[in-house]
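How a chain folds remains the central question behind the approach discussed here. No coordinates are needed to read the tokens, only the vocabulary itself. For completeness, the protein is quoted in full, as a sequence line and a line of structure tokens:
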Amino acid sequence: MNRYIYNASDNDLVAWNRNFTSRMGDGSGDPEEDYLSALQVVAAAKPDATLLEIGCGLGRIIQFMNHVGPIVGLEPDVVRFQASHELLHDATRVQILNCTSTHYKSHHSERRFGIVVVSMVIQHVPTATCDQILLDVHDLLAANGLAVVATTQQDEERFTYQADQTPRTAKEFDDYAVDSSSQAYGIPVRQFSKASFLAAIGRSGLSVVRWGQFSYVRPEKVAWFAKWMGSRPAAIQNVASSQYAILKRAA
């Protein structure tokens, strides 16, 4: 397996997020408000649960949910792993590990977690890897546990690259995404529709407790985003750019 490299700038993503807001037709509010509230609800419902975050990045969500635990964070990118490990790892309550969910599962086949979080990860990996991550969520989730998975959303599914929004086929996207050491156009970005996201969840043996959307394009930016994406303003103005689902294991 090729070593995974996250080919994006976190500072650029912070600037990018200024194009979004929390509510339809409004220009105010934290774009992630509804998603972060969902994480708080899950944490409040399971205050004594163990927490697993798949793709923990720089540790932002772990810090947000640090009142639950013990916590395990998995990060395959070495640079981001080192940063979050230095910040958060204490080898007792919080463990930060440099591995994928599939690798972790293979070495901890009996481990189960009351809460599993996958925050804005599955859109940046090959389609087969996305399905595998969701299967790993199912397998690592306790029988009565809750998972929260967040990803992109658009009016229809598109396969694109961060610096080039030209629509690609799923195969072109997979060929680009599979080798993160050679990504000339930045990270791959799969723009899920609601239907394609829910279909991926269904294939994993998980079921939806609650679906929500967040991060709406600011009103003054809608026309620009529609042109950039190759869509129409009317098609995206009431569709948030991100979505999440609270999940449980299907009966």
